[in-house]
Specification:
copper ion binding; 34% strand; Immunoglobulin-like; 498 residues; binds copper (II) ion; mainly beta; Cu-oxidase_fam; oxidoreductase; oxidoreductase activity; single chain; seven-stranded mixed β-sheet; Cu_oxidase_Cu_BS; globular
């Protein structure tokens, strides 16, 4: 269990407490947050660093997030999607921000952002977060995107980033000018610090040609915390910039940027053993019926699955290919069989609008085996032809499949290991579960509005599932069905440690 109420354990009721004992592993940069409604957006989160030995290099912890100056409840109740609300704070067709590839980023209007809780709004001059570098040495930044909707492009003026981990797992270090970070993702990077004062920038990943791209800043300095005068990294034909973790294959030529995509990253963790034939599962994140997975939108079951009451666990209909299924969508795998999950992002007309989705799976690490991207126009940078490796048998994409019939053989492939990956619009990522972990685990888009609308499923790993702790500590056990049919049952909050 990892704290998600209604999926892996009971919620912690208001005024109650719960002691979660766990082994602090794997080492690396993590964060924890509430999984009750949208409490995370109101600040119920924190960074969580696990060391295997006392650190020898100076390091800084960075929490980067977008912030809307209203409560998460307000965002939800004004939503035109989930509540038919007045859409206050929501963008329309004319002011929706898009990334360089022409893919819309969020249905919210961008308001502001924070680095470690500090940022500026309009022309205010509030103090910014600052970090005292040790010049001439490698300085380490441990960073997570703890926000709701808008991904950021991270850079440090006059410095190259050497990215060393993704999702708390070691990768063969890669140098880049810019690093894309999506909600829920974590990265470590080093810089060989120069002497002086420099801006650390987190820009919304909007098209760089868009002009006034929103940006959060922090100050890096050696001794005196004063505002830098440095300029952001410039990209030219003779000195092209490198962008790490692009959710697309490349940029418009005039932008002079090259992409490193996740499938070009190599792991530095131990090698997988040879395997028996894995089971293969296709999971499509689409917008056909609003944010959804294989034409399902998540709705809480009558009782959580861990209550082991088959009569009260709501099952989804077998066929969702012709009409929307709103139900607790559950994907079952077994502890004994390795599982390959094909995470795709296929949409068909008449909707034909996709977003990049940062997909997080609880309780597991997975290895990235392959990624596929749409073709793009080298003049505009916009996506042009959807990738056709994964197709769907029906317009709602209830049944995605591998189009060529011959699924790739990944026996000897070693990709990076993580727990969150961006599934590119009109493309896909193929992942392999590192070790199926018996239990009930949430898999969801970490973009808050997509999750709100039901872009979530429950991964049920059959096997030797540990007992849920004695429910007497909660004073209630798997409640009457009526209590689980409305959101009110999730009173109280809980901290997830994954
Ligand atoms: Cu999403």
């Amino acid at each position: 269990m990892d704290g998600v109420p209604g999926i892996t354990q009971h919620a912690i009721l208001s005024g109650h407490s719960f002691i979660h004992k766990f082994t602090a592993q794997p080492v690396g940069t993590h964060w924890y947050h509430s999984h009750y409604f949208n409490q995370r957006l109101d600040g119920i989160f924190g960074m969580f660093i696990v060391h295997d030995a006392p650190p020898v290099q100076p390091y800084f912890v960075l929490s980067v997030m977008d912030w809307y100056h209203v409560t998460a409840d307000h965002l939800k109740t004004t939503s035109p999607y989930t509540n038919q609300g007045p859409a206050e704070g929501y963008a329309g067709p004319s002011d929706t921000l898009s990334s360089q590839d022409g893919v819309p980023i969020s249905s919210l209007k961008y308001v502001s952002g924070l680095i470690n809780g500090r940022g500026r709004y309009n022309e205010e001059k509030f103090p910014l977060s600052d970090f005292m570098l040790v010049p001439g040495e490698e300085n380490v930044f441990r960073m997570c995107h703890t926000g709701a909707e808008f991904p950021y492009e991270i850079s440090i003026d006059e410095h190259l980033l050497s990215i060393s981990t993704m999702g708390a797992n070691l990768i063969v270090p890669m140098q880049a000018d810019f690093l894309f970070i999506y909600p829920g993702e974590c990265y470590d990077f080093n810089i060989l610090a120069k002497s002086g004062t420099f801006w650390l920038r987190a820009k919304v990943i909007q098209d760089p040609r868009a002009g006034d791209v929103p940006e959060i800043r922090a100050i890096l300095h050696n001794e005196v915390n004063k505002e830098p005068h440095t300029k952001e990294r410039s990209c030219t034909a003779s000195n092209k910039c490198i962008v790490f973790n692009c959710p697309f294959k490349g940029y418009a030529e005039q932008l002079h940027r090259n992409c490193i995509t996740v499938d070009q990253v190599a792991t530095r963790t131990e090698v997988f053993p040879a395997e028996v034939t894995p089971s293969v599962h296709f999971i499509n994140f689409g917008f056909q019926i609003g944010p959804s997975i294989n034409a399902h939108q998540w709705v809480n079951p009558v009782k959580p699955m861990f209550c082991k009451d088959p009569m009260q666990y709501t099952r989804c209909p077998k066929d969702c290919s012709s009409s929307v299924c709103r139900c607790p969508y559950t994907l079952t795998v077994t502890e004994a069989t390795p599982a390959i999950l094909v995470l795709s992002n296929v949409v068909y007309s008449p909707i034909d609008v996709a977003g990049h989705h940062s997909i997080h799976l609880h309780g597991h690490l997975f290895e990235i085996l392959q990624a596929g991207f749409p073709e793009f126009n080298k003049t505009t940078g916009h996506w042009s032809i959807a990738n056709h490796d994964v197709l769907c048998r029906d317009p709602l994409c209830a049944e995605p499949y591998w189009s060529s019939g011959q699924f790739p053989d990944f026996h000897n492939r070693i990709g990076p290991v993580t727990d969150t990956v961006v599934v590119p619009a009109y493309g896909y990522v193929i992942t392999r579960l590192r070790k199926p972990n018996p239990g009930y685990w949430m898999m969801h888009c970490h973009q808050e509005l997509h999750l709100d609308e039901g872009m979530m499923l429950q991964l049920y790993v059959e096997g030797n599932i540990p007992e849920i702790p004695d429910p007497s500590v909660y004073e209630w056990i798997c409640p009457e069905p009526a209590l689980y049919t409305s959101n009110e049952i999730h009173a109280g909050s809980i901290l997830s440690t994954i």
